[in-house]
Automatic annotation (TrEMBL):
CDD domains: AAI_LTSS. Transmembrane segments: none annotated. This is Bifunctional inhibitor/plant lipid transfer protein/seed storage helical domain-containing protein. Residues 1-23 form the signal peptide. Keywords: Signal. InterPro entries: Bifun_inhib/LTP/seed_sf (IPR036312), Bifunc_inhib/LTP/seed_store (IPR016140), DIR1-like (IPR039265). It comes from Eruca vesicaria subsp. sativa. Residues 33-104 form the Bifunctional inhibitor/plant lipid transfer protein/seed storage helical domain.
């Protein structure tokens, strides 16, 4: 009886870990397209390198700057492309927000974070 309980416990644990790992992408459990929706304040700055970056945009980008994989996935997502985001311009936003701890030199597809 004890060995069957132990087996069920281990099996349950393996299934739980598998579900957690399987559900985690570049941005955790949320898709890059869903995360891109949160960057609505950044659209103007992501289309024009000379546009000022709103504070609301910098606040959102700061969250993503802690996870460069997610930042790249969001800025290269279908939602970002459909919004007219220019990836090479969008990737300059962390620098334009004056973030000292931004992921400088991180490869983001064919682009590099300045």
């Amino acid at each position: 009886m004890a060995s069957s309980m132990k087996f069920l416990f281990v099996l349950g644990l393996v299934l739980l870990i598998g579900a957690v790992v399987d559900g985690a992408g570049e941005c955790g459990k949320s898709s890059p397209d869903n995360e891109a929706m949160k960057l609505a304040p950044c659209v103007g700055a992501a289309q024009d390198a000379n546009a000022s970056v709103p504070g609301g945009c910098c606040a959102q980008i700061k969250r993503f700057s802690q996870n460069p994989k997610c930042l790249c996935a969001v800025l290269l997502s279908d939602t970002a492309k459909a919004s007219g985001v220019q990836p090479e311009t969008a990737l300059t936003i962390p620098k334009r927000c004056n973030f000292a701890n931004r992921p400088i030199g991180y490869k983001c597809g064919p682009y590099t974070l300045p």
